[in-house]
Design brief:
The protein is an alpha/beta fold and 861 residues long. It starts with a helix and ends in a 9-residue tail after the last strand. The chain is built from 28 helices and 34 strands. Strands 2, 4, 5, 7, 8, 9, 10, 11, 12, 13 and 14 form an eleven-stranded mixed β-sheet that branches. Strands 27-26-28-29-30 form a five-stranded parallel β-sheet, sandwiched between helices.
Length: 861
């Protein structure tokens, strides 16, 4: 080896070993904004025991020595608002940070409504209603023309770390300009713009947000361990993730991706394949975003935080949102060690079609009210947004009012500005006086009023009475209430049919479009319920028994007296070809021999529109004594969509017509299974429709047989058994009906004896048999070849991009996807798919002759 080269190499090694460059954390960079007039932490890395001196051009200095791991940190007194300054960090090398400002720093976090940048909201789409276009135009003009050297943003790069806290991050400080504005968080931008206008000092925003995320990933791991229920959630999710990681095979994943990409490039049909993600990159895992995105920012000195999140928790862990949200805020304050810093958040905006009837449960409204309740935490504030949302877009364009309303809290409480009202009316307490409920509000400002807000314009006072109050007695039969403003901060609520009111709610819906209560400063009132605890949706609770209303005894009394009855079942294919119908017929015959005529008037593919039109012929002319109804599943599915309001109207119309013709008819409503067979673009949003059935049953005093919770519980706890019971993902076969539906039916109907098991000669569920039998030869026998071909066709239907593999977006159920994806590589191959379904052939082939006949199929050996 050349002697000179060796000498140079040795010198380089000695130099790098003894003199590691001092490196500040990424936040300490050119164009940064420091929190003014405070002891601001400054930190970074250097060589172990290296001396580090930090000095500001405003005359302050602080020194320290790096610890054994090379970490160092000092606290430096920052100047009054102004700049530009220079921050110098000196160790064995010198780092000079230029164009530093001192002003107000705010941490801006949450999901997509904080993450969405100005360029995302400066445009419209086909779903944007014309009335919202001016807001998009306003955003675009601001983005293209605004320039403010004293207004800056640092964007934290998206990252995950499920098991360890990181201390490094990537990002840059950028000042507001036509070139940089497109990347500014729209919510944070309009919040910061208000501070710039009112305070006249530099403002720095630290954007740390990720669209589509729940609250759980933003909570530190240690906070989960302080609470038994949170700890159980953390352990369950972490254990599952570790199992997925252990099965992750990058080489295999890449091989499949390249093969799929090659096929796509040949045909250019369908969506271009995407590589599967490493399970460690799952942004929904508890603590993962705190570890990777929040922790590296701590303990950067700031004034406070703003937050816009909750949409993804309206359907996940909804009932625990307030508890988890409070835990997150408290944990952030503890980790930052800056006391109870201000934490202001946006309540969810109105979204989706307006609701015209009072509802018992709504996940969106529940999240909103839990956000309101979080205000009891010290130094918190909430911007109410139920008048600026868009029915067709979860990301409302009017972020101007979002930013203004958040800024009102900061200006009033943190900067001592004269702000008459920083919030709309918030429920304070209530008193029941006879048949009236008197509601008292906080933040009534100079008084309550009814108003109307259009777009970005100021709220206009109206002479209408307050709307969207609902009231019920102990029977929980909700009525739209009469409301009257009776004082500066009070409203009286009543209904002539509710003599003893128990509960009042306001704006309890995902889109309470008619809600019109404001204070005279033009800020809207928040959703609320007077209940001490928000009821949990029955569909979210695991249930061993069905939720029922009505008395089974009254429904069988005439049968016990020997009378004959006609029973009509009416609904979708779940009833038309449902094994449960024949099993119910068998049990009724065993209990009441010769007394029951059961008529199946259902039709596959039908919804309540068809049900209403065909009602006279298929139901009323049969003169039923008892009737079962279920149409929710097809009312909800995209291809046959009927709005929940219209579905209720259809259901109520059928009920009224039947009772007019048969006043003594006993009507039984049913919810069914989760219908996971539908693909993403057609999958029904069933929870709302099933809740509507519960509401109607409760209001009418009907028997409700609620199968959905039991199916949902089975799907989540034993997806393999769910597949066996519901192989096509929607129609329960013989064993599913026997084990899940019939126990609930018998319990609800008070049938204490009878065996729903059918012999081979009894008519049973033929739907899948018929679908398979026609694939090669319709001979009333299903060969293994036909059986496998059917499942291959189902696989192909899900494979939207025709790349020979399914990704989560293409498949019908996240739970089933995880179950079928045996190697946990984020894709399902045809082999994995058939490995799940094909083995059922053998157990079904009762006589082991290699063919299935109708008496055998779905009757497992």
């Amino acid at each position: 080896m050349n002697t000179n080269v060796m000498t140079a190499a040795i010198a380089l090694l000695v130099s790098s070993a003894g003199f590691a460059d001092v490196r500040p954390a990424a936040l300490f960079a050119d164009n940064m904004v420091l929190q003014r007039e405070t002891q601001a932490p400054v930190w970074g890395r250097a060589d172990a025991d290296e001396k580090v001196m930090v000095s500001g051009s405003w005359g302050e200095t602080a020194s320290t020595k790096a610890d054994e791991s090379g970490k160092w940190s000092v606290k430096l007194q920052t100047p009054a608002a102004g700049g530009p300054y220079t921050l110098t960090i000196k160790g064995d090398n010198t780092v000079e940070i230029k164009n530093v400002l001192s002003g107000e720093v705010w941490f801006c976090s949450g999901q997509s409504n904080m993450d969405f940048a100005l360029n995302m909201l400066a445009k419209t789409s086909s779903r944007t209603e014309k009335k919202y276009e001016p807001a998009a135009t306003c955003v675009r003009q601001e983005m293209e023309t605004a320039q403010d050297e004293l207004f800056r943003q640092f964007e934290v790069e998206k990252n995950t770390s499920p098991f360890e806290s990181l201390d490094a991050l990537k990002g840059r400080w950028k000042a507001s300009s036509a070139a940089n504005n497109p990347a500014f968080s729209a919510t944070a931008y309009f919040f910061g713009r208000e501070l710039r206008k009112e305070l006249g000092v530099p403002v720095g925003l630290i954007k740390c947000a990720w669209g589509g995320t729940r609250v759980e990933p933003w909570i530190p791991a240690g906070e989960y361990l302080k609470d038994d229920e949170m700890a159980a959630y953390f352990e369950r999710e972490s254990t599952g993730l570790k199992d997925q990681i252990s099965k992750w095979n990058p080489a295999k994943v890449e091989e499949r991706y390249q093969a799929a990409l090659k096929r796509w490039e040949t045909t250019k049909k369908g969506r271009k394949p995407r590589p599967a993600s490493n399970p460690k990159e799952n942004k929904q895992m508890p603590a993962t975003l705190f570890n990777a995105m929040v922790n590296p920012v701590i303990p950067y000195a700031m004034k406070g935080a703003i937050w816009y999140q909750g949409e993804n928790n309206a359907s996940h862990n909804t009932e625990n949102y307030e508890h988890n949200f409070r835990a997150m805020i408290s944990a952030w304050r503890e980790h930052w060690d800056q006391g109870d810093f201000p934490f202001y958040f946006a309540q969810l905006a109105n979204f989706k079609a307006p609701v015209t009837e009072p509802v018992e449960f709504n996940g969106w409204a529940s999240i909103c009210d839990q956000q309101r309740r979080t205000l009891s935490l010290k130094n918190t504030g909430m911007a109410v947004l139920n008048d600026i949302g868009e029915a067709n877009d979860i990301h409302p364009h009017n972020k101007m009012d979002v930013g203004k309303r958040l800024a009102l809290w900061a200006l009033k409480h943190d900067y001592n500005r004269n702000v008459p009202a920083c919030s709309g009316p918030l429920y304070k307490h209530h008193k029941i006086k006879g048949d009236r409920v008197i509601i008292t509000f906080d933040h009534a400002g100079s008084g309550l009023m009814t108003g109307n807000k259009t777009g970005m314009a100021d709220t206009q006072k109206t002479d209408e009475p307050p709307k969207y109050f609902q009231i019920c007695g102990k029977d929980r039969q909700w009525k739209w209430a009469q409301a009257e403003i009776t004082g500066k901060d009070t409203i009286a609520v009543s209904h002539p049919e509710v003599a003893e009111p128990a509960v009042v709610r306001y704006a309890w819906a995902q889109n309470p479009e008619a809600a019109n209560l404001y204070n005279k400063e033009g800020l809207p009132a928040s959703v609320f319920t007077t209940e001490a605890e928000i009821p949990v949706n029955a569909a979210l609770k695991p249930a061993a028994k069905p939720v029922t209303e009505g008395s089974p005894k009254t429904r069988v009394s005439r049968l016990e007296a020997g009378e004959k009855q006609t029973v009509v079942v009416y609904g979708t294919s779940l009833t038309a070809v449902g094994a449960w119908v024949d099993q119910l017929r068998a049990v009724l015959e065993q209990n009441y021999p010769g007394q029951i005529t059961l008529i199946n008037s259902a039709r596959g593919g039908s919804n309540s529109e068809w049900g209403r039109k065909s009602f006279d012929e298929r139901v009323i002319q049969k003169k039923p004594d008892t009737m079962f109804i279920e149409f929710a599943i097809n009312d909800a599915v995209a291809s046959r969509k009927v709005s929940v309001e219209k579905a209720r109207e259809n259901l109520e119309d059928m009920i009224d017509r039947l009772l007019a013709a048969q006043p003594d008819c006993k009507i039984i409503l049913m919810t069914m299974d989760p219908a996971v067979s539908h693909h993403a673009d057609r999958r029904p949003d069933l929870v709302t429709y099933y809740q509507m059935y519960r509401d109607v049953a409760k209001a009418r005093g009907f028997l409700l047989i609620d199968h959905y919770p039991n199916w949902e519980k089975l799907l989540n706890e034993d997806p393999g058994l769910f597949i066996q019971y519901v192989p096509d993902g929607i129609h329960p076969v013989r064993d599913g009906a026997l084990q899940v539906i019939m126990p609930a039916m018998m319990s609800a109907l008070g049938l204490k004896k009878g065996k729903p098991e059918l012999n081979e000669q009894t008519p049973c569920w033929n739907y899948l048999f018929g679908m398979m039998d026609k694939l090669e030869e319709r001979d009333r026998k299903v060969t293994r070849s036909e059986y496998n071909l059917y499942w291959k066709q189902q696989f192909a239907k899900s494979d939207a991009d025709k790349d020979g593999a399914l990704i989560a977006d293409e498949y019908k159920s996240a739970v089933l996807f995880k179950h079928i994806d045996a190697d946990n590589d984020g894709t399902i191959t045809l082999e994995e798919y058939l490995a799940t379904y094909a083995p059922f052939f053998g157990p079904h082939d009762a006589n082991s002759d290699g063919k299935l006949v109708q008496g055998e199929i779905w009757k497992v050996k």
